[in-house]
Design goal:
Strand content: over 45%
CATH class of the largest domain: Mainly Beta
Shape: elongated
Number of helices: 1
Radius of gyration: 43 Å
Structural class: mainly beta
Number of strands: 18
Largest sheet: 6 strands, mixed
């Protein structure tokens, strides 16, 4: 057989075999894209909380010296509506209570005047209260002390001097009173329960000690004969920690 013929037949057979063979399929599985999904985050709804009331004693400043018998106090409030005294009680509104020592002013005014203030150290306390005069919860108060140089001298009948003094953990109001040597000094002590530690308050002076318990009967009355400048001191019960001093100064009449 002719070699060329044989080679040609062989090539033809090989081509035919490869043509008839099934083509290999790409069996590689297509990996579907993984849908990680979107994290289902709940929409955050921010509810703005009401702002707390803020109270300020604008003037005088703590420690100021006032050279007058008239003390002008300016207060201000933020996040709190000032409404007429006696209005229906609503959250976030009310009026001011302002004290100079034991004298209290109930007002919607931001400027308050105290007359006939004697020389000495005095305490000013301001509080935001509801329309029924009750305290907020928590209480909103400010306290400062001032010094006064005054030419005002209270009239006191010779032979007797009677005073009303308020007291709490922070002081006596007023912290200075005056009497004549030989006078019988009568003091009605009133206690500010809201500003006294739960154990109460003890007071010592030239009289029988006072051991006041919260919500106790008041005023508590004490008296003594004025012999010289006198200091009356308050203490925490049991611990004996000194809290405040009430000074009874000597005055003379011409």
């Amino acid at each position: 057989m002719d070699k060329k013929y044989f080679f040609g037949v062989l090539v033809s057979l090989l081509i035919l075999i490869f043509a008839c063979a099934p083509q290999q399929q790409d069996t590689a599985a297509k990996v579907p894209a993984i849908d990680a999904g979107k994290e289902n985050i709940a929409e955050k709804i921010v509810v703005e909380q009401p702002k707390s009331p803020v109270l300020a004693i604008v003037s005088p400043k703590d420690g100021d010296l006032i050279k007058s018998s008239k003390v002008i106090v300016q207060v201000d409030a933020d996040n709190f509506n000032i409404v007429p005294v006696g209005s229906p009680v609503k959250e976030g509104e009310g009026h001011f209570h302002v004290w100079l020592d034991s004298e209290r002013k109930v007002t919607t005014d931001r400027i308050i005047a105290f007359e006939n203030v004697v020389s000495g150290k005095h305490t000013i306390v301001a509080e935001l209260v509801k329309s029924d005069h009750s305290s907020l919860s928590p209480k909103v108060t400010k306290l400062i002390t001032i010094n006064v140089e005054s030419d005002y001298v209270p009239k006191v009948e010779p032979g007797a001097s009677e005073f009303t003094i308020e007291a709490d953990d922070y002081g006596f109001y007023p912290s200075t009173i005056k009497a004549k040597i030989g006078d019988k000094v009568k003091i009605n002590f009133k206690f500010r329960d809201d500003s006294i530690y739960f154990a109460g308050l003890d007071i010592k002076g030239p009289f029988e000690n006072i051991e006041y318990k919260l919500k106790g009967e008041q005023p508590v009355k004490r008296e003594f004969t004025m012999k010289d400048e006198t200091r009356i001191i308050s203490y925490w019960p049991a611990s004996g920690v000194k809290k405040a001093t009430l000074t009874v100064e000597v005055i003379f009449y011409g």
